[in-house]
Amino acid sequence: MLRKGCWRLRAQLSFLHRSFQVSKSGHRNLVSCIDPSMGLNEEQKAFQKVAFNFAAQEMAPNMAEWDQKELFPVEMMQKAAQLGFGGVYVRTDVGGSGLSRLDTSIIFEALATGCTSTTAYISIHNMCVWMIDTFGNEEQRHRFCPPLCTMKKFASYCLTEPGSGSNAASLLTSAKQQGDHYILNGSKAFISGAGESDIYIVMCRTGGPGHKGISCIIVEKGTPGLSFGKKEKKVGWNSQPTRAVIFEDCAVPVANRIGNEGQGFIIAMKGLNGGRINIASCSLGAAHASVILTRDYLNTRKQFGAPLASNQYLQFKLADMATRLVASRLIIRSAAVALQEEQENAVALCSMAKLFATDECFAICNQALQMHGGYGYLKDYAVQQYVRDSRVHQIIEGSNEVMRMLISQNLLQI
Prior knowledge:
Layout: H1 7-19, H2 42-59, H3 63-69, H4 74-82, H5 101-112, H6 116-135, H7 138-149, E1 155-158, E2 174-178, E3 181-192, E4 199-205, E5 214-220, E6 226-228, E7 242-253, E8 257-258, H8 264-300, E9 302-303, E10 306-307, H9 312-340, H10 346-371, H11 383-391, H12 400-412
Parallel strand pairs: 1-4
Antiparallel strand pairs: 2-3, 3-7, 4-5, 5-8, 6-7, 9-10
Helix pairs in contact: 1-2, 1-8, 2-5, 5-8, 5-9, 6-7, 6-8, 8-9, 8-10, 8-11, 9-10, 10-11, 10-12
């Protein structure tokens, strides 16, 4: 249970759910210009409503406790999986929901209003399940995907290493075949869910240097030679553990390799294209929640004998935040459609969406904290958590500096 001092946090978060509703007269309320359902069809509006309701009822009341106590909310995520959120864009024959990339973005944006950190982990889990579903053989799909879609098991993505971050193709974790097993040695860094997850999608070197020597192998928790580093202390993202993943003569069946040898880097990058849209959508949810909280704070807080909402400077700041929010949503949804349709410029558009939206949405959250004044810096107020949880989105799934590289390479046809 939240400590008594967090009643203010509960009160603030109750605003969020009410702010997304339609009045009985059929007219939108005061947030119509940032209404996240604009442009959606009826089916999309329906599952968006389910996601917002779940975020408001199951996530928002607990997000401060998960953050402060660093709790991994397994039961809540399994409830989310019962709604189809464990394998949103995974095929239905293995338990997925079979939805589109746009549908997925809509759902993750809604969930992130309730807890950005936990939604970000759910998005990574979804990316891992999709990789198995898309690149695995039928035996692998039917073995691994069903328990992941129900979140009876959890998955982690293992690409980054202590010495290879942005230059992922230089990774050193090795996998040498001995009979019908690969023997893995090396380590991965900054792995979300590490130690709690049951399935690890590991990029490792089975061949020579460069990206063509990398393969993708599933390592299951409990495999001898698999261990984990200490739980990292982080600024945000505290509802999901982050640890190193260590391989010491870790024997994994060759049957656990996804795709062919040398195909791992391609698989990893294709996973990240969707992951970038997903994480940008999580930033979008944090920013949307922050705009709503700021709007309501300006209407209730008084200074110099008048509500802060009457101050034109603050009105202009709120207008800028709303504009950045809508622009971010549009570029994310455009990129999601491009990826779904496998358009030629999809990689560049995904990179643009991740770059623009994570930068702009963090700026929105940070401005929201500023407009809350001293209260914004207190952990009784939700806005500071949205700031902390969204900051890392400018780094993960490829830093925003790397996004600029990918965009410019596309423009210059390098």
